Protein 1
Amino acid sequence: MLTNLAQQPADALLALIKLHNADPRADKIDLGVGVYRTDTGATPVFAAIKAAEAKLLETQDSKAYLGPEGDMGFVHALMPYVFGAANPTMDGRIDGMQTPGGTGGVRLAVALAKKAGVQRIWMGTPSWPNHAQIFADLGLELKTFNHATKAGVVDMDALRAALAEAGPQDAVLLHGCCHNPTGIDYSHADWDEIAALIAARGVLPVLDLAYQGLGKGMEEDAYGVRRVLAAVPEALIAYSCDKNFGMYRDRVGAVYAMVADPAQLNAVLSNGHALARAAWSMPPDHGAAAVRLILEDAAMTKLWLDELDVMRARMNKVRAKLAEAGSAGAIDLKPLGGQNGLFSILPLTSEQILKLRTDHGIYMAGSGRINVAGLTMGNIDKFIADLATVSA
Ligand code: LMR
């Protein structure tokens, strides 16, 4: 029976981690998978997480099961940051559950949409490759539109045309901030229009917020999500703490549902619990418990937010330096200065991407996506010079 299973290609993005690790060159540069790095190239555990883990070790008195919803203290503690401190439950219309990472959040959000009757999901491309894989695995039809124009700005015409065709049987997946892979985000005016269009068409929004705080700030990065939620009766929100708490391998995420009438919320969430039970039963506790301890403690919260500010400032410095360089060979680097988060796309051919890897030890996704946090003040000049050589 098992011989029926054909060999599958390794996930291209995750395969880069191993390729980079195996490269003996001292001056290699990892611009692949999306993890934050310091100016020395390290991905340290947040000091706030270390403090929370110490407290957890000291105070945790049981590891007995919590249930498919996970740590609801964690789920609720995040809500003021995501939905706004003034009315985090939108008058009792929003609640959620813990998931294994943002991927678990997206998976559950889309599975809930499908179970509720959604047949098609719209998404701007390029997008995080796992989005399309999850939709395909769930048997949803994917309809795509252009996320950005060649000029490097959001393609609002493409989005308008897509939403004009979409209807109440459809969902639309939108990146809340720090678009992965382009770094090209919607402006406030764009979000205002998008919110109105989604509401007018009756499409179910699925909002993926995986990089809150890595773009312009925790509040600013929530603008789009909050704007859409204010305009529509129902929505699903997938959230990741993997980046903004540096919890990558601990898999810390959540899914939230917003319903029209608070009386519907328990029924919707009970479907989430059932889907989780059948898939992973219960999410891993440790990371979410650490995040909860941070958010329950004002001093640890400040420590975490300060660390997030340092990360954002460093990424902005890298982006400013790239933009300042102006160009590298045929590649215009100026737009990278105005983009957000960890990622930007460089218009490189597959041959050029391979040449950067084999000849210069520079690792990036096959789409030309770079993780700008992989650049440091020590390697950025080499990167720009090698890019110029390859793209000249
Ligand atoms: C990325 O896009 O690099 C991250 O979201 C990591 C992942 O799971 O793909």
Note: The radius of gyration is 21 Å.
Protein 2
Amino acid sequence: HASSRHALRGATISFRADPFLTDPADALEHWPDALVVIEAGHIASVGPWSAEAAAGLTVTHYPDALLCPGFVDTHVHYPQTPMIGAYGEHLLEWLERYTFPAEAAFADPAHAAAVARLFLRELLAAGTTTAAVYCTSHAASVEAFFAESARLNTRMIAGKVLMDRHAPGNLLDPPGGGIAESRALIGRWHGRGRQLYAVTPRFAPTSSQAQLEAAGCLWREHPGTYLQTHLSESPAEIAWVRELFPTAESYLDVYRRAGLTGPRAVFGHGIHLSEGEFCQCHRTGSALAHCPTSNLFLGSGLFRAFDAKRADRPVRLGLGSDLGAGTSFSPLRTMGEAYKVAQLNDTRLSALHAFYLATLGGAEALYLDDRIGRIAPGHEADLVVLDLKATPLLDFRLGFCRDLAERLFVLMTLGDERVVRATYVAGMLAAERGG
Ligand code: GUN
Ligand code: ZN
């Protein structure tokens, strides 16, 4: 079936360049009425629709819609799905009171399988087709996640959380442990179909120096794998890291010294980074995940996206839902909150900036921009169809927009899962609203 040739018809948007670094109007590719031809799970061609171009093809027509590259979520925790919206704490207390108990339940593989199934269904319903996902410290939580992702044929990055201190005993790796299990999971899953592995030390406070260094060695042993962790999220966390690693020059320096920076390293948050740390991210090719709904929910602070993307030393940047501190699966909601955070920093995140971050920007952060993040020939056919008539209010409000940029901005301000009419994964319809 994957080899079958078929096509989608509708308006498209896609980015060919980074609007933070080039004129946004040049960075955007837009066809008001396009034919996207799909073959063997890839995009074979994209161009203006015509009867001749569509001849002989089975065409699914989406009028009153916008076809986008599938959204990329660069930071999310699937085991926290059962605890979204847990009340009343900042980061460190929230971890102890809600997160660790929720993650302990993943000792039960049946629970892991059930949550993985629900999580991936929600992700696709929100239009997200690739995510960098934290599992728990249980190898079975990774097994369950990749098994479900492989079944759906989604391109996912995931890994076993590494922790050997400062967390409940039932979640800790034994001294010297966790690495062999991670290595075995890499062997089983990295590069199997569309699955990719991320070495995943939770964050500096929950790993010993020895475990961080072992994680760095494991990562280097397996080229093409990822490294994901948290960085500079809350003031109390940063003070704690300073206490635990008194000789490190900065929070990021803790990771650098353990060999945890470089291409395919993805750091969640990075809210309170110094100029030196931004430079170090740029120089090493490390990426940041901006998680606005989470940062507002936990009261962690206001990420400076335009500082991160400064043209003389731009840092690779994607958006993250960071569920379950994040409060929505929807990249449209995340984009809308990223705009508000930028407002509070006295900067202005346009719709083109935001849609870039949720698509090509995320793909570049993950070094996957040759495969996903664009509607372009040769790219994997992961697509989302946004319904411009999804709600009466959206339909009504879009009627007052004068151009595409205004329409996109209204979509990210009013939009959520209801706007996602269909999601295609490697050319196949994987989720459909009401379907
Ligand atoms: N820092 C360490 N672990 C976590 C987590 O699970 N969520 C968030 N938001 N920050 C963290
Ligand atoms: Zn996180």
Note: Residues 75, 77, 230, 268, 322 surround zinc ion (ligand 2) (CB under 6 Å).
